[in-house]
Amino acid sequence: MKVMVIGGTGTIGGAVVEQLRLRHEVIVVGARGGQHRVDIEDIAQVRALFGKVGRVDAVVVAAGALHVGPLAELTPEHFHIGLRGKLMGQVNVALVAREFLNDGGSITLTSGVDTEQPIRGAVAASTANAAVQGFVRAAAIELPRGLRINAVSPTVLQESVHLFGELFTGFEPIAASRAALSYARSVDGAETGRVYRAW
């Protein structure tokens, strides 16, 4: 298959690229690197990206900005960071991908463990991640042509503990390569409307 991985230069995305390349042709897309570059918050850029790449069999998104900070300090703008980035950025990709996916193709988005296991400082992040999961479940019943859509909900990664470990006290970090297996399950599997827990 021909698979586009958006966020493919990041920690999770890089592991997903490595996993999927075992079986598929992978196109790596990043905000600042990769074979192509895109700002997923700008749907015009997303359309231009697909216009260049053409038809694909699967799209994976492991990207999207989020705000982390205590509830007492949150403003509407803090929420908008995740709503524009993590939610609408991924929704933009899914909406455009409908037109460029081959029949039976798949879309895989990314949420996060904080959706189901809240942590301090992640109110804005959890809100956006939960919305991603809601979108996936609802979109799955309306996609045409046998298209599938799922989400992966990863926990903190071993590779990122030095950055985010304090937020995830008591959580067992997993290797990015383990998280990548859930993305592979979505791309290579047959299910739709699922949230795969990588934790």
Write up what this structure looks like.
Keywords: Oxidoreductase. This is Short chain dehydrogenase. The chain has 199 residues and is an alpha/beta fold. The chain has one domain (2-197): NAD(P)-binding Rossmann-like Domain (Rossmann fold). Helix content is 41%, strand content 20%. The protein contains six helices and seven strands. It has helices at residues 11-20, 43-53, 76-100, 123-140, 161-164, 176-188; strands at 2-6, 25-30, 36-37, 56-61, 101-110, 148-154, 195-198. A seven-stranded parallel β-sheet has the order 3-2-1-4-5-6-7, with helices on both faces. Strand 4 (56-61), helix 3 and strand 5 form a beta-alpha-beta unit. The model has no long low-confidence stretch (mean pLDDT 98).
Average of pLDDT = 98
The SSE string, one letter per element, is EHEEHEHEHEHHE
The fraction of residues in strands falls at 15-25%
Radius of gyration, in Å, reads: 16 Å
Q: What CATH architecture label applies?
A: 3-Layer(aba) Sandwich
User: Which superfamily, in CATH terms, is the homologous superfamily?
Assistant: NAD(P)-binding Rossmann-like Domain
